[in-house]
Specification:
130 residues, 5 helices, alpha+beta, 41% helix, Aspartate Aminotransferase, domain 1, six-stranded antiparallel beta sheet
């Protein structure tokens, strides 16, 4: 089970990442572009999901494209999901209390890579290959 401290540590370990507060929740950005963030479910989200209340923390994570978002949801719908608010948007929602720390590290790294400028991504990948 992952926590916000895990998200924070994983995100801030990536190059040029900073932490901010947006709409009352934590958001992590690479340069000026957000890649993971706290995403409390709103009334419209709850209605779309057919539930009365949010039962645990929800992480929003950028994806390379919508195909990746839908692949994650198909892979494990108990962890990954979306709402109509994110239709047409390359981001997936994650039940933070249902994802392993190992899988969370992959999600955060892939979200960072989806948001990072191409040159920064190349430099990061090159450093990790050498």
């Amino acid at each position: 089970m992952a926590t916000w401290d895990d998200v924070r540590a994983l995100a801030l370990a990536l190059p040029e990442t900073s932490e901010h507060v947006s709409h009352g929740g934590a958001q992590w950005k690479v340069r000026a572009k957000g890649f993971v963030w706290e995403r409390p479910l709103r009334r419209a989200d709850l209605d779309a999901l057919g539930i009365d209340a949010q039962t645990g923390p929800v992480l929003g994570a950028a994806t390379e494209d919508e195909a990746v978002k839908f692949a994650l949801i198909a892979e494990d719908p108990s962890v990954f999901f979306t709402t109509p608010h994110f239709d047409g948007y390359a981001a997936v929602l994650v039940h933070l209390d249902r994802i392993s720390k190992r899988r969370l590290s992959e999600v955060v790294a892939e979200a960072w890579a989806a948001a990072a400028p191409a040159k920064l991504l190349r430099e990061h990948l090159q450093r990790n290959v050498d």
